[in-house]
Design brief:
The chain is of the alpha/beta class and 333 residues long. The protein has 14 helices and twelve strands.
Amino acid sequence: MNTQRYPILRRTVLVATLACSCVLTSGAFAADLIKVRLAQNLSPISGVVIVAKNKQFFEKSGLDVTVINFTSGKQALETTLGGGADIATTAEAPVTASAMAKQPIALLARMEYSYLKTLVSTASGINSLADLKGKRIGQTVGTGSEVYTMALLKKTGISQKDVSTVSLRPQDMVAGLAANGVDVIDTWEPHIANAKKALGSKVKELDTKGIYAETFNIVTTQSYLQSNRDATTKFIKAMLEAEKWMRVNRDEAITTVASAVSMNRDDLALIWDEYVFGVTLDNMTLDVLKTHSSWRLATGNAPSGATMPDFSKVIFTEPLKSVAPDRVKITFN
């Protein structure tokens, strides 16, 4: 057929050819991506990987990441250890529990930290940390919330025998204060902000910044790391790109994360700066792990015969060091 005589037909053939080419190229590109299953605690603290997924930094780094969402980092890590995922986002509490149980985990990077906070009911008459004596404190047992409460009391010089502690899930903290079941809640964001929004002038925050920060980390199994060095390195690279994008595009980052976690955007914007995002391995990461481990040993929240873990055998610096050596600032004693 002479397409020169039929210009419309000629253009149609050209467009169809290009379309087929694009489909084939796209299919070939997708086939080349390394598949990774991410067990994610769906919360703002997972902001870096949420952005990496939503803004396609994983794909640009050569990964096809399937996200499985959980309501806690503990569930995410347990799923990864059970073979249901390859990489997990999790806080220090599940990490220390796994390390003390001799489970072969590999912590690759910290991606966020934020300080825990104390909110009190105005009716309790608490105006300073010294006023906590004799009060009822809501905490989440087995998490950084409990460790934070211990550190808070120690700093204030109040014995744990001088307070009453009530175990509450983070999402039940607001109800606990509202129903006068507790005088105080020790927890992390966004639960403090949620309580302030719900209870208004009936609550107030005490200044406790600097006492205890909860970290949020990227953890896999040692066997997965050994067999998938390329995938883990690409994963870290995508996280670094996402972190960089978040700094430059603050407003859009807030919108992206708020949408992903089904949170009101304005509510998240108010507390966004409380989340310190940064892909790193530093001495703060190690110190928090040691502090949490010390708490486990002191309170019996560890397996029988457990000792302080050797975190040089839990934290693996190679993937991050190969991509961004300046982000590895950890010193093992």
